[in-house]
Amino acid sequence: MTRIKIAIAGIGNCASSLIQGIKYYRDRESKGAIGLMHWDIGGYRPYDIEVVAAFDFDKRKAGMELSEAIFAPPNCTTIFCKDVPKTGVTVRMGKNLDSLSEHMKEYDEKYTFVPSDKKEPTKEDVVKALKESGTEILLNYLPVGSEETTRFYAECALKAGAALINCIPVFIASDPAWAKRFEEKDIPIIGDDIKSQLGATILHRTLADLFRKRGVELERTYQLNTGGNTDFLNMLNRDRLSSKKVSKTEAVQSVLEERLENENIHIGPSDYVPWQKDNKVCFIRMEGRLFGDVPMNLELRLSVEDSPNSGGVVIDAIRCCKLAIERGKGGVLYSPAAYFMKHPPEQHTDDAAYQMVEDFIAGKRDD
Question: Which of 101, 287, 296, 325 falls between 20 and 30 A from 24, CA-CA?
């Protein structure tokens, strides 16, 4: 099989986990798919992915070899594969239209972004880099709240003819105008806002669906999250949270038999705790009524390393996107989006979305 050539915008913790994972699973081929939803998708294994271009605006990463940049500050995720080989890819200076919140400048450099003084690229510069590197898929791993910068890279993908996987809560695939543009150019897109393998959103959705199936009336619920990576620091600015809250809240509302009033559901990042680093702690509470209108409540605490938790999902999304390219399918990939993303253009239950993506992989759905 040929390698799947991807470019990454944003060399943060998630990019670090993904690149470590590509090497990790090459070394574990004989041991199979531990920690993955699929070992083989269309003949592509987890390690059949090659990063051919990378962009970041932090001065500690721009200009550095990619295999070194993934371990540079402020990255703080678990290092589970230390011997990542040199990639031959130098991290290019990235665009920063709105990726750095003003309040982050007040924090120590080890916790926050440090913008490079190098000249930022134009759209033409990025398009040229994507084309010359042979990029097939552009992966958006920018900081939460990067609305304008995400649109910049989406434009670049369209002009370069590269598919887009939008891993952050900026609405591109789920925006009909953007979706139409990718469809018109026959370019695949998967989005928006990547789900974790087993994270707060998928767990909350599963419990909400269980309440519905077992006849328990859900009256109110919250999901509170704390963490110590740059995303949590970034989201201390509540103005950057609007799309994130919409994405996470809608993911739960969509599986309820009846939507809860806004006052009875609260889902979103809650606070930044520096010593947690990339560990995310989630607290879920659900209150409802059982047989005889008798009240009950459920409380749950989940602790996960945030960035590796989405790595396997992204590896599947990349391979599904490659299948679409090979099949000549452009526009929104509804089945992968429904299963892999918190805010897809079409919400489905997880059981339905699972079957949809299995059918897509098998070639039974062309989306």
Answer: 325
Q: 9: how many CB neighbours lie within 10 A of its CB?
A: 31
Interatomic CA distance for residues 303 and 273, integer angstroms:
14
Measured CA to CA, the distance from residue 139 to residue 8 in angstroms comes to 5
What DSSP line would sit under 256-296, residue for residue? Answer: SSSPPPGGGEEEEEEEE-GGGTTEEEEEEEEEEE-GGG-EE
Task: Specify the pairing of strand 4-9 against strand 49-56.
Answer: parallel
Residue 1 pLDDT exceeds 80: no
Cα angle for residues 338, 223, 219 (degrees, 5° grid) = 90
Selection from 32, 75, 41, 78 nearest residue 56 by Cα: 75
Q: Is the confidence at residue 100, as pLDDT, over 70?
A: yes
* Side chain identity at residue 290, one-letter code: L
Instruction: Name which of 264, 316, 308 is nearest 287 in CA terms.
Output: 264
Please name which of 322, 323, 342, 344 lies closest in space to residue 332, comparing C-alpha atoms.
344
For 253-305, what is each residue's pLDDT tens digit?
A: 999 989 999 999 999 878 999 999 999 999 999 999 999 999 999 999 999 99
Distance CA 41, CA 21 (A): 16
Close Cβ partners of 333 (under 8 Å, ≥ 6 residues apart): 188, 189, 190, 320, 321, 324, 360, 367
Question: What count of residues does the chain have?
Answer: 367
Beta carbons of 343 and 250 less than 8 angstroms apart: yes
Looking at residue 2, what DSSP letter applies? Answer: P
Q: What is the DSSP string of 170-201?
A: S-STTSHHHHHHHHHTT-EEE-SSBPPSS-HH
pTM of this structure: 0.95
Cβ proximity of 219 and 3 under 8 Å: no
Q: What's the CA gap between 2 and 283, in Å, rounded? A: 43
Strand partners, 223: 267, 284
DSSP state of 44: B
